[in-house]
Amino acid sequence: MKKLMITLFALTIGLSSLTSCSADSESATNSTTNETVRSYTHSNLELELLDEVNAYRVSVGLNPLEIIEHISYKSSEHNDYMLATHTVTHEGFEERKSNLQEVLGAYRVGENVAFAYSTAQATVTAWVNSPSHKANLEGDYTHFGAAIKMDDQGRKYYTNMFIKK
């Protein structure tokens, strides 16, 4: 019974994360840093997620996106926040967006988050089945990055950010 309740809780949190995503128009704002992070090392799972996103884009006739490590670094910072607060949220998106605009020259920024999916493929499938997340996957972007982090119970937090330069 306890395991069933934990599973239902995880599914509820995971599904609620699918109901929100962030995308913006082409506005610019100030940022707190102007240094590009060039040393982010992707895990195999993160690279698999990025490959799954690109495979989906290509399957619907869109261009594959190029990885920028700084975007993955900002995604990783957001995962740290979600882990610390035990929430799946887009809180702080405006600050991340501003950073990507100033540092990378982005004029369009989008973000998908997810929680508790066991594989990259399951995460992308869930995003494809959510209209707002699908809009980001199919958006007019040129570059992307992603980060995945686990909590102490092995549940994964995902952040995938997109930009157009």
From TrEMBL:
Signal peptide feature range: 1-22
Family matches, as SUPFAM superfamilies: PR-1-like
Lineage: superkingdom: Bacteria
CDD domains for the chain: CAP_bacterial
Keyword annotations of the record: Signal
This protein's record includes keyword Disulfide bond: no
Domain SCP: from-to ranges: 50-159
Gene3D superfamilies, sorted: CAP
This protein's record includes keyword Signal: yes
Protein known as: CAP domain-containing protein
Family annotation (Pfam families): CAP
